[in-house]
Specification:
375 residues; alpha/beta; two-stranded parallel ribbon; 42% helix; globular
Length: 375
């Protein structure tokens, strides 16, 4: 395993030493920011419904740069990543542009994108509308994250504890509780467990069957949701695994000469999704004052892959970066990998992660299907 390091950026005002009058000033200041730093909402929420922030945990699908200063292969703070993001600057997002939670925050009118919690340029007011703690390479099984050298979910929760303390210092305990209670918590994880852990390590398959391994994943996911509930979260969205056997890299390494979708990988995703859905359904019937929802990402992404022309895409079995067969993270670079000229022709940006165009279609589908249940 490659060594890695955690560097925390102390770019926040030290609120513990402020006088009471200064505390009142800063509290008022940040409350004003909370209600003025929004973007135009594309989704109309019911009257008296508030979603003050989007708070994110998980893996590279929703990482916005938390791995940028770490020694790990799971980072992409280099071109051509971010080629279509604001200013064409690589931020650490594993895409050509925005990732799903950026688009969700934009659609809800909260802000244009969700910043990484460990971003050294993060401003105090950014905390009020949400951040992402997600880390490329993370998984529900601790070994998965160790393999990649990312930030495990346990450490993401510790950063979240810091986040809560900072909110308390900025706007007070009552407002912090309001933000946590009404915000949308998004957890996207599981792909790395299946692709990079279970199916990549023979030693893991000696210890677990696919049934017992996906049960472990689903149980750990349930525990994570319960932890968020314990911190005050009440709107929790647990995303299932995608059709991991149909992403370009997995087709290349395990799909045979024809690079077909890998059925056993997809079967593992579906098995995990069934267990996760059952766990979340049971938990939601236990925690009656909360909204815990299982989100099916498998179906809409598979539809894009199998029927790309219906959505305006031309290529769904290759990534846009390089040959599209295997390039991801370091292999997708400006030196050895040409980039397709029209990113919106492709379902996938690199060999593992979709394009912003794909994410926009998927997020729109998910909003149509689930928003009424969330609010």
């Amino acid at each position: 395993m490659k060594p890695h390091r955690y560097v925390h950026h102390y770019n926040m005002i030290s609120y513990s030493f402020l006088s009471s009058s200064s505390r009142l000033f800063w509290c008022s200041f940040f409350l004003v920011l909370l209600f003025t730093t929004t973007t135009n909402a594309l989704v109309k929420l019911p009257e008296n419904t508030t979603i003050p922030a989007v708070i994110v945990f998980g893996d590279s699908i929703v990482d916005a740069g938390n791995n940028d200063d770490m020694i790990t292969e799971a980072r992409c703070d280099h071109p051509p990543y971010g080629i279509d993001f604001d200013g064409g600057v690589p931020t650490g997002r594993f895409s050509n542009g925005k990732v799903p939670t950026d688009i969700l925050a934009e659609e809800l009118g909260i802000k244009p994108n969700i910043q990484a919690y460990r971003d050294p340029n993060l401003k105090p007011e950014d905390l009020l509308t949400g951040v992402t703690f997600a880390s490329g390479g993370a998984g529900y099984v601790p070994l998965t994250t160790q393999i990649a050298g990312g930030i495990p979910l346990s450490q993401q929760l510790k950063y979240f504890e810091e986040y809560i303390e900072k909110l308390n210092g900025m706007v007070g305990e009552e407002r912090t509780k309001f933000i946590l209670k009404n915000s949308m918590f998004v957890i996207i994880c599981g792909s790395n467990d299946i692709a990079n852990d279970f199916f990549s390590l023979p030693s893991v398959r000696l210890q677990y069957t696919v049934d017992s391994f996906t049960a472990l994943m689903a149980d750990n996911a349930r525990s994570f949701a319960m932890s968020l509930y314990g911190y005050g979260a009440r709107r929790i969205l647990m995303f299932g695994a995608p059709p991991i056997g149909c992403v370009p890299s997995q087709r290349t390494v395990a799909g045979g000469p024809a690079r077909n979708c890998v059925a056993r990988f997809n079967d593992a995703s579906k098995l995990f999704n069934a267990k996760l859905s059952a766990n979340i359904d049971l938990l939601s019937r236990t925690l009656l004052d909360s909204t815990l929802i299982y989100i099916d990402i498998y179906t809409p992404l598979l539809d894009l892959i199998l029927n790309p022309q219906q959505y305006g895409f031309k290529v769904s079995n290759l990534g846009c970066c390089g040959t599209g067969l295997i390039e991801v993270t370091d292999l997708c670079n400006n030196y050895t990998s040409a980039v397709c000229p029209i990113r919106s022709d492709y379902v996938f940006w690199d060999s593992f992660h979709p394009t912003e165009a794909s994410y926009r279609i998927i997020v729109a589908k998910l909003i149509d299907r689930y928003l009424s249940s969330i609010i």
